[in-house]
Amino acid sequence: xxxxxNAGLIQDVCREKVTAGELFTAxxxxxxxxxxxxTLFVPSERHRDMKDTIHETMxxxxxxxxxxxxxxxxDVGAPEKAFVYHHITNDPANYKAxxxxxxxxxxxxxxxxSQTTPDGAFHVDARGTLCxxxxxxxxxxxxxxxxxxxxxxxxxxxLYTETFAQTLTFSKDEPQTEYTVDKYGNVRITxxxxxQANIGGVLxxxxxxxxxxxxxxxxxxxxxxxxxxxxxxxxDRSPSPIQADAxxxxxxx
Length: 253
What we know:
With 253 residues, this protein is of the alpha+beta class. It is 31% helix and 19% strand.
């Protein structure tokens, strides 16, 4: 299985390709995820570590789940046949196989030192958004389709269900942003919201009780120059309020 950061990227890439009606294989998804991961120095993972998550994600779009996508086992120029994902109205024979000769060479040593996400920490995805996972959201009663209110305080962001938030009183110094729990049970918090709490960056931790989830910046014993540069870069390129609203309601994905 792959990391939560790469799993989030897999969901993004699969959704985009399905929305565009593309024909693709799990290997195509892996290549795009690896490309996006490099932009934020997310630890790269091999196709064999991601393929199960990719196939599980695509089950959401499968015809037997009421979706409009299917898969056909085909010769795609690889040592073994692979599943080509395609809209039910598309002919999978139209899939253009990759030139895999370039992938047969030994991997080059990356020019950027590899980094690992510390145990217990959560890394932002390629867009700089932070995924609050379904397991944590279920603790506060948040299910797919429900509204979540993110309240930015000084040094932290707290997440509440919309219903619970209506019972609370917030000061003018605590800006609120509304998000919708996606069909996977997750919520993606934008850098705009995180910066409102003065915690724009890359690594975070989550705490929760029965009524709220608290997002805090991940505290490390020491920060390397590369880690600091990445954190500064992500914090500086957060989306505008208009872009943040689009990301929050999913219209920019």
